[in-house]
From TrEMBL:
Catalytically driven reaction(s): L-lysyl-[protein] + acetyl-CoA = N(6)-acetyl-L-lysyl-[protein] + CoA + H(+)
Protein name in the entry: Histone acetyltransferase type B catalytic subunit
Compartments in which it is found: Cytoplasm; Nucleus
Primary role: Catalytic component of the histone acetylase B (HAT-B) complex. Has intrinsic substrate specificity that modifies lysine in recognition sequence GXGKXG. Involved in DNA double-strand break repair.
First-listed, main subcellular location of the protein, grouped into a coarse class: cytoplasm
Active site per UniProt: 297 (proton donor/acceptor)
Chain residue ranges for the region called Disordered: 466-505
Amino acid sequence: MADDDGAWTASANEAFVISLVAPGSNGKESKFHPRFTYPIFGEEEEIFGYQDLQINLRYNATDMRPNLQIKFSKQFPAIGDAEPLDIKEVLSEFLPEVAFQPLKDWKSELAKPRDDWTPPGELLTSFTNKAGRFEVWKGTLSDPAVKQLVKRIQILVPLFIEGGTAINVDDKDAGHWTVFFLYQKKTDPSNKKPTYIFAGYSTVYRFFFLHLPPTPPTTPLSDNTSSPSPINDPIVIKEDFPLGTPTVDITTLPCRSRISQFLILPPFQHLSLGSRLYHTVYQTYLSHPPTKEITVEDPNEAFDDMRDINDLRCLRSLPSFQALQINTSTPIPKTGPVPKNIIDEAAAEKVRKEAKITKRQFYRVLEMQLMSRLGESVRPGIGLDESKKVATATERKEYALWKLMLKKRLYVHNRDALGQLQLEERVEKLGEVVKGVEFDYARLLVKMEDQEQKLREEGEGVVVVMNGKGKRKSTTEGVDNDDNGGSVRKKARVEEEEEEEEEEE
């Protein structure tokens, strides 16, 4: 072999270039590399068989019509089993057929943009920030135009969302998918006509929401023995399964709406657009009567930060949420179970259902809210200011009750793992987890305040809507931190780079 293998091996991440090209004769081009290529080219993210390899995936930034071009200076001559990777064949599994048309045909279409083109679906909302004007459009995969656009952009999911997988747009339940497209709306300087630039998107899947009433007590038998009634036999309740039967109108059924994919393209990151898009999706299902809960599929940490901050901000717009507080008259037991009246649990549950937030997420955000109200002398921080006032007895008790509430939730959440430890070890481990959660809450509260301060200085705001009724102005826009100390491995299906983050998710 004239050259060693290294000379014929290229980094897939470096060789792969994605471009957004604005339509028109002088369309602006934004270039960026993928974050991941292992779902396509293998764990090593390397491509064998070429020198000076360039993989150019260009998109018409309006309708996202793709075009793939592969260039190289030399190709490895096949020797036995050693042969160059067929890049086109590999990528054909991720791209529609139109991506392989000649470049001149793609450029010809790009140079003749339609004056009347708009994103598929219906216009949901529009807003303006320092980057310009943006619109969010919504449609379902039963719409051929939505389906076509999703097929064109699907490859971006494994390239930017770790563990992300494409949607089967031809599946029989494809109509259960709702897609939210984020577009920048600009004016073409050459003809003064509006044009759209794709910035990101999110997909939501609707599952049937099954909620059964409590099981009646066992009925004693006549011979004074007791045996489980058939109604008390173990029942497996599958709360997440696809909606619909041939005879049922799925739009009327109670459902759980789950955010599955969430992507903001690199040229539009660091602009708080992820918060805007998340807020729009959340608001849409908040005012959607069949939706009982809004969930997220396997979020990663950066998305969780954005979600936590946005959820807290929205919940703070509810007087009923603001009214929730720690009952400092609750006695603290030295032994035994945690008291149930640390907070008004019935009132909290009512707020949770009104906000359509899952239990774990809601109580995490509530814990964060209650922690933010603790006296400064006892409130956990991030270690930036060690000087604190002497705590009063009331402040110490309120903090102790807050920690009891937190410990109870964490213990239930980590029951299986903690149950394998000896009592002393269990107490120590739970204490470590509590400290980690306290730090994370403090970090999020500082981050939230920093974002709000920055947007106050820039004069930006966002409308926070709860229940599709009341409105109030907020000064800004917006795993689940692993409460078990990181023992749970989380797949990331959601990607957004928040303004305060230094690196993408």
